[in-house]
Design a protein that fits this description.
11 strands, four-stranded antiparallel beta sheet, about 120 residues, mainly beta, globular, seven-stranded mixed beta sheet
Length: about 120
């Protein structure tokens, strides 16, 4: 069983930055790739980024590529999502999830966190 706990959400102005954290724990958690998703009100959950368990390889969704950066500190069991140049369209609940492969397909995630809310004001 893998547990994920997100933090770092809040209110930020357009053009601002925010860093989210996802603390990962549980048996075998170090072998999982960790992905970030977001879900805006009335919209489908969208894959944002994913980072491999050991190689550091990453993938990004088209809407955030070049603005968001995912990173991982295995010594702290934490995955970060640095979000820059935020716009109101980035407003959503952001959740992290664990999977055995490098992907942002929500259907193959094995474990989910509860999420943290990000609001970008115009």
């Amino acid at each position: 069983q893998v547990q994920l706990v997100e933090s770092g959400g809040g209110l930020v102005q357009t053009g601002g930055s925010l860093e989210l954290s996802c603390v990962v724990s549980g048996s075998g958690s170090e072998y999982y790739s960790i992905a970030w998703f977001r879900q805006a009100p009335g919209k489908e959950r969208e894959g944002v980024a994913c980072i491999d368990s050991s190689s550091g390889r990453t993938i990004y969704g088209d809407s955030v590529r070049g603005r968001f950066t995912i990173s991982r500190d295995n010594a702290k069991n934490t995955v970060y999502l640095q979000m820059d140049n935020l716009t109101p369209e980035d407003t959503a609940v952001y959740s992290c999830a664990a999977t055995i492969i490098l992907t942002i397909l929500k259907s193959v995630m094995d474990y989910w966190g509860k999420g943290t809310r990000v609001t970008v004001s115009s």
